[in-house]
Amino acid sequence: MNERNGRKRILSGIQPTGNAHIGNYLGAIRHWVASQGEYESLFPIVDLHAITVPKDPKQLRAHIRETAGILYAAGIDPEQSTLFIQSHVSAHAELAWILNCFIPMGWMERMTQFKDKAGAARERVSVGLFDYPALMAADILIYDADLVPVGDDQRQHLEMTRDLAQRINSMFGKTLVVPEASIPPVGARIMGLDDPTSKMSKSETGQGHAIDLLDSPDEIRAKIRRAATDSSRVIEFDESRPGVNNLLVIYEAFTERTREDIEAHFDGKGYADLKRELSEVVIEGLRPLQERYREIRKEPGYLDAMLKEGADKVRPIADRTLRRVMDKVGLG
Ligand code: ATP
Ligand code: LTN
Questions:
Q1: pLDDT tens digits, 63-95
Q2: Which residue has the CA at smallest separation from atom 11 of ligand 2?
Q3: 283-303 burial, b for 16+ CB within 10 Å, e for fewer?
Q4: 85: helix, coil or strand?
Q5: Going by CA atoms, what residue is nearest to atom 13 of ligand 1?
Q6: pTM of full prediction above 0.85
Q7: Quick check: 203 and 53 in contact, CB under 8 A?
Q8: What residues are in contact with ligand 2 under a 6 Å CB criterion?
Q9: I need a labelling partner for 132 at 20 to 30 A (CA). Which of 150, 159, 194, 234 fits?
């Protein structure tokens, strides 16, 4: 069931929140690009997840196209990968409902992302935000995905997805593929530049928090110049000094040089040198993506056509799994 012409299937989603940042790129997107030749690759733009927090409808629709443009510009190749809009395949939401009915409250209550995001507003945030992991599980399970390449923040959601698939398999016999998370060794948790103790996040809109993928060179330089460091002068990888460590990890991820090599390179240099060199590395690292993005946006209609084609291609796979689950559960 889960081998397709010998190729495994990967699936990963991205929220169309409109300010994709280098954390998304280093933790997820660039690995999707690198592995698309090896695996059958499906990438939903998860607009149903985006509405778990209030969104302006016009902006949401624009951000869906922007996100698709960024993914193609980053190197997602429509010949090798399928990009589509989650809400265009209604089986995701239908399966999510069914899964909801097999997820114990206790599992959901343990999800730390909800606790972090809801914070003190727990009574006011939407039920959708609480239920977010059920929809994410549906995104994955509905395609019998084998591998899910994500950043470190999604580890717990993936564990819950696996537990859920196993639970359903033990209740109804083999029904769902139990997926595995694939979390990169470098760049899986890029931290905020302004506060290196919290993950770089799209929902954090503070100036100087994140480097967005479409930031201009001057914006990138200014954000890195202001990034938090510490009063020590030594430039080395050290998690107890999160500011400098984070800058070095970003440098490491973009240059793919070894830690030893990087520490030797910066030996005797100061934070100003680190920040200056890092800025140029990030600017150069993002330049091809930004140039391709501008090209893609010049062709009106291209993105919509590609996204429609993508949804048309995956819909039959999703419908088949939904039928299979409905059948096992006794629905219809
Ligand atoms: P938010 O932080 O507001 O929840 P997000 O940045 O996590 O949003 P998504 O679109 O949901 O946005 O994430 C897309 C991918 O990027 C996911 O695989 C996620 O794990 C990864 N990712 C997000 N933030 C980081 C980060 N700071 N470092 C590494 N990977 C990240
Ligand atoms: N929850 C993820 C986005 C997401 C996803 C998915 C990732 C939605 N569905 C399926 C992997 C597989 C996030 O917040 N980053």
A1: 999 999 999 999 999 999 999 999 999 999 999
A2: 12
A3: bebbeebbebbeebeeeeebb
A4: strand
A5: 14
A6: yes
A7: yes
A8: 11-13, 15, 46, 49, 136, 139-140, 148, 150, 154, 157
A9: 194
